[in-house]
Amino acid sequence: MSRRRRSSSSSMAAAAMPLDELERWLQARAEQHPAATSLPMLDGYVAAIVAGPVSMSPPDWICPLLAIDADAFNHGGTPEFAAISAVALRHNDISNVLSTAPHRFAPVHGRKPNGDIDARPWCKGFHAAMQLRLSAWAPLLDISNINHGLLLPILLHCVDDRGCPLLGPPRKGPQTEEFLRNAHPDIPAVVEAMRQYWMPTRYARAR
């Protein structure tokens, strides 16, 4: 890493809001409708930005994530700027892990009251980020595309605006319940696979 990049990263870390504080800050902003109101949702959202089909300028995705104006990027020393810095750090962390040691990528999941992993908030955040450039995600949303399955471990945890399962009603029975309960371990692998899938076109667009 270059000296300039290390200095920029250190400055960002110094300005960043701690993650537990960031979660409380997001929850207090619920009336402003941020795309995420919890750390798992934020983590899923950022993962989609890192692994998705297009490169986006930070204000284009951080502003809807935090429900802030782009002008917040211009004023250091504010809670908004501290939140921006925390999000940027998490983005860089995910990007670095997927680039150098993808087997170490670990989504931030919550827990259900019974102690089971709850992948739904993370997946909801990932899906919210997809909405920003949904047309660019079209190839993986095409069920005739052999790679459509990469999205399934994520989308099967998502619901539409009416609260209905995004992929349609699941079949009833213990096998379906077992599948839903155990789908989350596939998420790290499919996120990295999606990053690889999009890489040729993502960086071709960015040139």
Question: Descriptors for this entry?
Answer:
207 residues, 10 helices, two-stranded antiparallel ribbon, 2 strands, mainly alpha, disordered N terminus
What would your notes on this structure say?
It is a single chain. With 207 residues, the protein is mainly α. The chain contains ten helices and two strands. Helix 1 crosses helix 5 and helix 3 packs across helix 10. The longest helix has 22 residues. The two termini are 22 Å apart. The relative contact order is 0.14. The N terminus is likely disordered.
Radius of gyration: 17 Å
**Count of helices?**
10
The description of the largest β-sheet is: 2 strands, antiparallel
Can you tell me the residue ranges where pLDDT is under 50 for at least 5 consecutive residues?
1-7
Helices and strands, in N-to-C order? HHHHHEEHHHHH
User: How many individual β-strands?
Assistant: 2
Average pLDDT works out at 89
Span between N and C termini? 22 Å
Order of neighbouring strands in the sheet with most strands: 1-2
Based on helices, strands and strand pairing, what is the structural class?
mainly alpha
Query: What is the share of helical residues?
Result: 55-70%
Strand content: under 5%
- How would you describe the shape? globular
